[in-house]
Amino acid sequence: MEVAGPAAAALNTLTPTQIQFLESVPKAELHAHLNGSIPLPTLQQLASEYLASSSGQGAISNEAIKQGIDVLSKGPKLDEIHDFFGLFPAIYALTSTPAALARATRAVLSAFLDGRPPQCNHLELRTTPKQTDAMDREKYLRTVLAELDRYEPGQVGLIVSLDRKMSEEVIKEIVDIAYALRKEGKRIIAVDLCGDPTAGDMTKFEPYFAQIKDAGLGLTVHIAETVHNTPEETLQLLSYRPNRLGHATFLNDEAISIVLDKKMCIEICLTSNLLCKTVSNLEVHHIGQYLKADHPIAICTDDILPFKTSLVAEYALLLAKPPYGLGLTEDQVKRVGEMSLDARFR
Ligand code: IMP
Ligand code: ZN
């Protein structure tokens, strides 16, 4: 995976020995979205096959797909977080059949797990089940899970994402499928709440999140991702007792004290926050307060495709000296890796 931007700048300041050290640190990737993590060559291949056979009459025009791939190839310029969500329709058109989704999943798993050395020792991949002309949501999940089965059970698990915009009917359908597949012994370990952080009313999720916890599944929610997320919404989401939190960038003091008290692990995605401009620089990033408190965190990539990063490159942002990184010691970096492994859903 090509690395660019702040993570590449951090890597460039490190010696080969330091990079080897980062590669050797035991760590887990706990926050990676499938359709945001497809290696660019795989996506380009899927696009050329799609364009060769498509009449352009689908939900998205061939021209829009070409443009989308072009933007992703160059590295998208994001002025704010909503620009980021606009990248997905083109990707979704390319992973809308079981065969294409399987290829994309295989490439994502390989990017995280097959390198020598691999990017991580453990992966929790997440994805939002979609209904398309070629598959229903159950088939979507079965297709992804079949690819996970190519790896050892302890190596990778699946988090099922619910989108903030989903109707209650779709939420119920997905949660029911997730339970049924888990009962069959499939590797569904948790549920995630994701999607446009400014959309949707969180109340509709309440009964489902309670059930999910009771059923022994993990719960992680993207929370307080933008300055527009209200303190009321944040406290509401915290009241559903999530085990882990994605981003948690804009927590007020009341929310922070709950998070610290309940030891909820924060999934930190440094490049994602910097490029989506929800955090202006590393010096003011909320990771600082959690490092000081030795509070559980996990360094994660979020979406390596648009953000052009890798897990090792995100760890470079910890080790590199300011202003390129946070200037942690090697022992501190090891501790962060350990915390990510401790926060796995089991
Ligand atoms: P998918 O669930 O495999 O389709 O992965 C892409 C989807 O993940 C996007 O359409 C978003 O809904 C979600 N996603 C990716 N990154 C973020 C994020 O930083 N915040 C909220 N949602 C995200
Ligand atoms: Zn995310």
UniProtKB/TrEMBL annotation:
Gene3D superfamilies: Metal-dependent hydrolases (3.20.20.140). SUPFAM superfamilies: Metallo-dependent hydrolases (SSF51556). Residues 26-337 form the Adenosine deaminase domain. GO terms for molecular function: adenosine deaminase activity; metal ion binding. One of its GO terms (biological process) is inosine biosynthetic process. It catalyses: N(6)-methyl-AMP + H2O + H(+) = IMP + methylamine. Its cofactor is Zn(2+). InterPro entries: A_deaminase_dom, Ado/ade_deaminase, Metal_Hydrolase. Keywords: Hydrolase, Metal-binding, Nucleotide metabolism, Zinc. The keyword Nucleotide-binding does not apply. Belongs to the metallo-dependent hydrolases superfamily. Adenosine and AMP deaminases family. This is Adenosine deaminase domain-containing protein.
